[in-house]
């Protein structure tokens, strides 16, 4: 078949938001890991869509590793930013990390697409994607294409919609 276009994707967001769970779910079922553990540093993963081959830098969201993120910004061509929609207490921390990302010199002036997953939509206390979008002030992002989807990293609900959007941005 045709050779797929390779895209470097950064997967960012606070610890425990569900980044690794989501990336794992995007892989073919025979390549999926059974147990997901907190990421140490980062992990490089791959998954395909109909036209793209994504190389993912799945970064640890733990505070002590967040300073690693910026070293991968230059080569990142797209971003997935994952939010735990049920973690109301840390929504402000997620917002601060997003602002730090958006103001970084390697990101600031680039039209890099950002896909937000308002993850853990299955939890009773989860906020809607509209509410998450408001709390993160996403409407202020004017110089980059962005999109937010409610998701469930465990069942995969919402992931396809998001990845389809991302693929459309990169064509
Ligand atoms: P770090 O690697 O530490 O940055 O965390 P992470 O963002 O990669 O989170 P990880 O994928 O390890 O998931 C953290 C926990 O959330 C795990 O217990 C997952 O099973 C759980 N989880 C992930 N997605 C969902 C979801 O949509 N709903 C629910 N209920 N739990 C989820
Ligand atoms: Mg992880």
UniProtKB/TrEMBL annotation:
It is a peripheral membrane protein. Keywords: Cell membrane, Cell projection, Cilium biogenesis/degradation, Cytoplasm, Cytoskeleton, GTP-binding, Lipoprotein, Magnesium, Membrane, Metal-binding, Myristate, Nucleotide-binding. Mg(2+) binds at residues 20, 39. GO terms for biological process: cell projection organization. It is found in: Cell projection, Cilium membrane; Cytoplasm, Cytoskeleton, Cilium axoneme; Cytoplasm, Cytoskeleton, Cilium basal body. It comes from the Eukaryota. One of its GO terms (molecular function) is GTPase activity. GO terms for cellular component: axoneme; ciliary membrane. InterPro entries: Arl6 (IPR041839), P-loop_NTPase (IPR027417), Small_GTP-bd (IPR005225), Small_GTPase_ARF (IPR024156), Small_GTPase_ARF/SAR (IPR006689). Its main location: membrane. GTP binds at residues 13-20, 61, 119-122. It holds the Pfam family Arf. NCBIfam families: small_GTP. Belongs to the small GTPase superfamily. Arf family. PANTHER family: ADP RIBOSYLATION FACTOR-RELATED. This is ADP-ribosylation factor-like protein 6. It comes from Geotrypetes seraphini.
């Amino acid at each position: 078949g045709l050779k797929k276009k390779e895209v470097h994707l950064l997967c960012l967001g606070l610890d425990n938001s569900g980044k690794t769970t989501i990336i794992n779910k995007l892989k073919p079922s025979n390549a999926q890991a059974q147990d997901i553990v907190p990421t140490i540093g980062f992990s490089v993963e791959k998954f395909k869509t109909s036209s793209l081959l994504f190389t993912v830098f799945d970064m640890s969201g733990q505070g002590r590793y967040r300073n690693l993120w910026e070293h991968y910004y230059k080569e990142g061509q797209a971003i997935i930013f994952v939010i735990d929609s049920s973690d109301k207490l840390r929504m402000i921390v997620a917002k601060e990390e997003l602002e730090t990302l958006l103001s970084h010199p390697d990101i600031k002036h680039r039209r890099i697409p950002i896909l937000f997953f308002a993850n853990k939509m299955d939890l009773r206390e989860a906020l809607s994607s509209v509410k998450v979008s408001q709390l993160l002030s996403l409407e202020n992002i004017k110089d980059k294409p962005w999109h937010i989807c409610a998701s469930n990293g465990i069942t995969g609900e919402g992931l396809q919609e998001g990845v389809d959007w991302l693929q459309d941005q990169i064509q």
